């Protein structure tokens, strides 16, 4: 499958920005099941400073705002070829040791709700089956619903609310998997929807490390392992490591952000 992606993020600030830096993790990485054919990034109101790969092998672009700017636009356009690998990403790579994916983070730390959830997971006799059972249980306990959580909501908080979005589902899965002694990590990326092209935001899911298979993906929100409709962009211990855009600015107090995202299959003429 060939997926065409057009992703624009537009910021409007309440006043002139004296200084601003943003770290972008927006370029997909060629890995198991996907190959980046084309990718372009363009900016209005900002300049590219440097590009590099971080410890998780995520491609990172660092941009600086033009002095006094009141609007900034970041646009990514690209084409990615994908295959259905049943969610199996294979062996571990990068400079982060495996034990790091067993350690708690602020967003995934284990509390009484995570422990209770993990203890309720049916013991299926093998790790892969246990993880699928965990994914299904989280989907029952945390209904997909927008407007109830934010980027700072913890796994414990999402469980307490009983509602959340894909980011929350991933964090709950990661926390519970780690409590069961299974390394787990966060994935940010894109998903081609079957019913529409235009979307409000990117997607997120989790991966767990299974002996003999390596990293395997679990999209709790949709109840499946990622297939050819998914494009992996960044991975990390939690959202903070894989967030598409993070940064700092000085000057204007408030901002408004608008996201325009289109993901569609490109037809190849014979």
From TrEMBL:
InterPro entries according to UniProt: Bac_transglu_N, Papain-like_cys_pep_sf, Transglutaminase-like
Pfam family, one: Bact_transglu_N
Protein name as annotated: Transglutaminase-like protein
TM ranges: none
Lineage: Bacteria, Pseudomonadati, Pseudomonadota, Alphaproteobacteria, Sphingomonadales
Top-level taxon of the source organism: Bacteria
Species per Swiss-Prot/TrEMBL record: Novosphingobium subterraneum
Domain Transglutaminase-like: 158-222
